[in-house]
Amino acid sequence: MDRGRIFNVSVEGLSRLHRSADTALRLRNSFTVTIEGQLSFGNLSIKSMYHFKPISVLELEGHMDVLLTGLTVGIEISVKHEVPVLTQFKVT
């Protein structure tokens, strides 16, 4: 049985984002994957979501335009019927 594929998620914008941890997720081709990116600064919160169905080996790069510094960017990767994976980036 095919146990799925591994992909990495990276985010970069106008400012460099430093990853605090690498994220790798195994998924089966039949699942729909949701990637949600969130920038927060005080009361300001910006979200972006991506939905896709993996077909084969997939490499995904997300790009966000970051205009402010001192932000924390959280990326949540969830696959239907699986536990979400959360990774955070710090904008410097």
Explain what this protein looks like in three dimensions.
InterPro entries: Mite_allergen_7_sf (IPR038602). With 92 residues, the protein is mostly beta strands. The chain has a single domain (5-91), classed as Immunoglobulin-like (Sandwich), CATH 2.60.40. It contains no helices and 8 strands. The chain has strands at 5-12, 17-19, 24-27, 33-41, 44-52, 60-63, 72-79, 85-91. It has a 5-stranded antiparallel β-sheet with strand order 2-8-7-4-5, with no helix packed on it. Strands 3-1-6 form a 3-stranded mixed β-sheet, with no helix packed on it. Strand 4 and strand 5 form a beta hairpin. The protein is elongated and about 45 Å long.
Brief characterization of the structure:
The protein has 92 residues and is mainly β. Helix content is 0%, strand content 57%.
CATH architecture classification name: Sandwich
Question: What radius of gyration results from the CA coordinates?
Answer: 14 Å
Strand line-up across the major sheet:
2-8-7-4-5
Which parts are unreliable, with pLDDT below 50 for 5 consecutive residues or more?
1-31, 51-72
Number of helices: 0
Question: In the CATH scheme, what's the topology name?
Answer: Immunoglobulin-like
The protein's oligomeric status is single chain
How many β-strands, per DSSP? 8
What is the makeup of the main sheet? 5 strands, antiparallel
Strand content: over 45%
Number of domains: 1
Q: N-to-C terminal Cα separation, in Å?
A: 43 Å
Write down the overall mean pLDDT: 45
Order of helices and strands: EEEEEEEE
Q: Supply the helix-strand structural class.
A: mainly beta
CATH class: Mainly Beta
Helical content stands at under 10%
| Shape estimate | elongated
